[in-house]
Amino acid sequence: MQQQIAVITLAISDLARSKRFYADGFGWAPVFENDEIAFYQMNGFVLGTWLQAGLEADMQRSGLSHPGAFALAHNVATQGEVQPLLDRLAGAGGKILRIGDAPAHGGFRGYVADPDDHAWEIAWNPSWAIDGDGHVTFGV
What we know:
Elements: E1 7-12, H1 15-26, E2 32-33, E3 37-41, E4 46-51, H2 52-59, E5 71-75, H3 82-91, E6 95-101, E7 108-113, E8 119-124, E9 129-130, E10 136-137
Parallel strand pairs: 1-4, 5-8
Antiparallel strand pairs: 2-3, 3-4, 6-7, 7-8, 9-10
């Protein structure tokens, strides 16, 4: 079976607030949106942000909780890009969880939560190549 993820969908409470974080913070534009969901075309998959009630109805599951026991990650090309992006995301409605610093295993990273408390790691790793389309290759 092919190793791929097609869509990651995050439950959110306010679509406009969420779009501000992703558009003003990351600079991403939705490729589709309506009154309860926004989809962002990523490099090889789609990120969805869906009002929690709609996602719960679609899943036939209630009580989705926040924050999740996971972190999404966005890698950048240089160490110097980490903290400015964390700051920009905080200015777009996010909350810095950890300022940029160097972990023992190498590279440089920090964490920010989106307005719905989904954690994002902003990272630079000199061993992870990023091509022109934004695809990251593990341990090059």
